[in-house]
Amino acid sequence: MTRHCILQGAPVDCGKARRGCLMGPDAYRTAGLAEALRDLGHEVSDIGNLAPRPFTPRPHPKLQHLEETIAWTEALADATEQTLTRGMPITLGGDHALAAGTVLGSMRHAEAAGKPLFLLWLDAHSDFHTTESTDSGNLHGTPVGYVTGRDGFAGWPALPAPLPGDRIAMIGLRSVDPAERAALSETQIQRVDMREIDENGIARPMAAFLKRVADAGGHLHVSLDVDFLDPAYAPAVGTTVPGGATVREAHLVMEMLHDSGLMTALDLVELNPFLDERGRTAQLMVDLAASALGRNVFDRPTQAY
């Protein structure tokens, strides 16, 4: 299936204290994302880097860059909603705080189309905190809390309706704070940690989730964090957690997404080129995006680093 892939850069670097993710969008471009997708027969447009809405920063006793994060959420929600009317947005991040905006844009678009939205969260972390429960004050740990309608987001853009837990799958979990764990236990969110993947493989939970999306005729927003992968393969992330997905497991997830034909939006987040090794993480993320859009095992080029 040929797609119109619309690349939108989101140099969001306000979701945490450690800087560097603002360089992510250009790293994906340098690693040849547009060329890889065109080689697969897709139409590709690059609309450049977006910018946050105007904002006035204010000191906060705990939260990092609250006003800037809200401003990015507003801008990315509007841009993603608009982009979805023309094709499939691929958002080049930027830290994971950006997903508050991109998922909101997908929620609005799905509501206008009369379709349920589903969310696949590929991440070591659940990012289910609220502005009140976070100990670090890093707002890249809150986007799923926000889109599911948890308390603590006064002043953020209104949701069409909270995203129901039974439409969310988190795969690759291995670092979940106690407050998040307690809150998640009260939801219907599908939670797949690395132990389950080790015991049963990654294909079974992926297939179960994709079947739910297909049976509901839903749209599917995929948010892929670099730290879904084991840092041995993908070192360019400031939140490294050992024991993540292998390259083989990650490609299988992406190939299953392509086979399903269900993905309507894709985030590529938390790439910090300052921490990379000769671009290997950026290249791997590009390769995964290509797998999600039709490159199969026989087509993968040999990489030299």
In short:
The chain is α/β, with parallel strands linked by helices and 305 residues long. The chain is built from ten helices and eight strands.
CATH homology group: Ureohydrolase domain
N- to C-terminal distance:
32 Å
Q: What's the pLDDT, averaged over the residues?
A: 95
Task: Give the strand tally.
Answer: 8
Strands ordered across the widest β-sheet: 2-1-3-8-7-4-5-6
Uncertain parts: none
CATH architecture: 3-Layer(aba) Sandwich
Q: What's the number of helices?
A: 10
CATH domain class name? Alpha Beta
- The percentage of residues in β strands lies in 15-25%
Tell me the CATH topology.
Answer: Arginase, Chain A
The SSE string, one letter per element, is: EHHEHEHEHEHEHHEHEH
Radius of gyration: 17 Å
Overall geometric form: globular
Number of domains: 1
* Largest sheet geometry: 8 strands, parallel
Structural class: alpha/beta
Fraction of residues in H or I helices: 25-40%
Describe the structure.
It is built from ten helices and eight strands. The chain is α/β, with parallel strands linked by helices and 305 residues long. The protein has a single domain, classed as Arginase, Chain A. The two termini are 32 Å apart. The mean pLDDT is 95.
